[in-house]
User: Fold these one by one.
Assistant:
Number 1:
Amino acid sequence: MSRPFAKALSAEILFSALGRIVIGSYFVAKSCGLIVDPNGVAEAFSAGMVPGFFVIASVIFEFTAAFMVMVGFQTRIAASVLALHVFWTAFIFTYVPGDAAAISHFWRDLAMVGGLLMVATCERTLLMIDGLLSEREAAAPMPRKPERGDAFSRLRRARKRDAAAEARASA
């Protein structure tokens, strides 16, 4: 068994991938309408509190970000932005002080935010697209670019040589 593949199969990496897939699949199913929202966010959307364009944009965003989290493409960005989206929609639509049912839904959404933030902090592995892309970039030889300081140092040395040659010629 090769070393990168063995590293990909450690328990920590497998549980990280499983958690990422479970959290992402929850939001994909929710955005597809497979999970009914018991606290009435969909009712608030349909009641006209939110314009229809924002409902469609929210569903498309949630599906896209969740799918990116599931497959591991731009995972940190997707999980962070999805966590912000979930937090603010939960705060706006489900946080009702004094209503125990609404507060329990708000805390459920906060738990999902916590899970998304944990996904955002995971390292890249071979079990995600980001990890495969970074491994490919690491394996490919990078051409050496001249550094900016190198060109300026050569220019300064050339000017000093020219000034010294000019001083000798005039003396």
Note: The mean pLDDT is 78.
Number 2:
Amino acid sequence: MLTVIAFAGGSGNPDHYSFSAADISRNQTIDEDVIVRVNSITNASEQIDYLNHLAQNTPDNRQKLYALCLLGETHSTNAIPILLENLSFLDEDRHIFPAVKALSSIGEDAVEPIFAYIKTTTNLVAATRGAETIQMIKCKGADCSEYIEWLKPRFDGLPKHLQIDLGVIER
């Protein structure tokens, strides 16, 4: 995982995110060129814009993976729309859905946008991944009481596939 030296959260914008290749875990490698390019941009919103553009427009799935991972590391709510659009993107080499991990990194600020998205999307893979992401954010270890309380008032009217994906009813 990359370390974000300047943290945005949902409450403000830093002047600049600083990503360090030295802080990448053994499980995740990020192309050094992408890190250098992002770090050379001096404005945080322009960095997010660049990563959004890279995630949307690159034909290289590795570059897309890197962009999605870095978007999550910013913890910025500005990254949520592009991450939602990429919920069904699977990195076949690592067998992960990077947008799920990225949205989970953003945390609580991503829950309501994810829920709104999964209620309207026709992409069942994205809906399933979105439901899993909400569970990852809301469930603290084995304790899902916060998740259940959050879900109760939202349950009525959900399509059956979402009720299943959100863990409300058995398959």
Note: The two ends are 34 Å apart (CA to CA).
Number 3:
Amino acid sequence: MDSKEIKQLIQNGEKIDVEFKESKNALTKDVFDTVCSFNNRNGGHILLGINDKRDIVGVSEDRVDKVMKEFITSINNPQKIYPPLYLLPEVFEIDSKKIIYIKVPEGYQVCRHNGKIWDRSYEGDINITNHAELVYKLKKEKWAEVLTGHFAKQQNKMSKNNNKKCSHLPI
């Protein structure tokens, strides 16, 4: 990700995979809901220092390190985020203001924030913890991804082994 791509994300606005958080002086607590939502969906981009109107307000220069440290500490705390995530926020300077960019990948386990399960719908994060049908659907999708990946690896491994066993035969 570079400054040009960050500006494009800002210009295009919030979507199912893009979220802005003002976070000028402190980390907004709902950022972790968004992290889980993105991780439970298809991944996404979080930009700290941008408001909902797409204005670049920036994270105060003297608060950037504190905001990043709090974010990294929280996502690695299994009491807060489960499973803990390994994310690397990046700082960009746009229009002489500091922006923190966080890329959240799609997860293969259901992600929880403070024990709650979050999902993403268009531009919002939805707590689906008490909606058994939605939780079941999310878990089913995650398990399907895990099993599909597992079987694909097994099939690939078997294919390689068969090629080795037959490599001596003339074609």
Note: The mean pLDDT is 86.
